[in-house]
């Protein structure tokens, strides 16, 4: 199950739209994005929620696996 969730996390992260416009933004530290933040909508918001849920599931399964393997 942990393997399936980890593969789904990778897929979800790769499906998220890029927020980086150009290489200059990466070099400047993204200062323009600090003041121009907008709330995610539509597909982007859905993918953010999916990624968060999968991350929580991954963490829970990893803790459960560690607990089971120690006992």
TrEMBL record:
The chain crosses the membrane at residues 50-68. It is found in: Cell membrane. GO terms for molecular function: protein-transporting ATPase activity. GO terms for biological process: intracellular protein transmembrane transport; protein secretion; protein transport by the Sec complex. GO terms for cellular component: plasma membrane. Its main location: membrane. It holds the Pfam family SecG. InterPro entries: SecG (IPR004692). It is a multi-pass membrane protein. PANTHER family: PROTEIN-EXPORT MEMBRANE PROTEIN SECG. Belongs to the SecG family. Involved in protein export. Participates in an early event of protein translocation. NCBIfam families: secG. This is Protein-export membrane protein SecG.
């Amino acid at each position: 199950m942990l393997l399936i969730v980890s593969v789904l996390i990778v897929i979800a992260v790769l499906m998220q739209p890029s927020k980086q416009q150009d290489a200059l933004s990466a070099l400047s530290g993204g200062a323009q994005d600090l003041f121009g933040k907008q709330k995610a909508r539509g597909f982007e918001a859905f993918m953010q929620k999916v990624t968060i849920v999968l991350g929580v599931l991954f963490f829970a399964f990893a803790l459960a696996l560690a607990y089971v393997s120690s006992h």
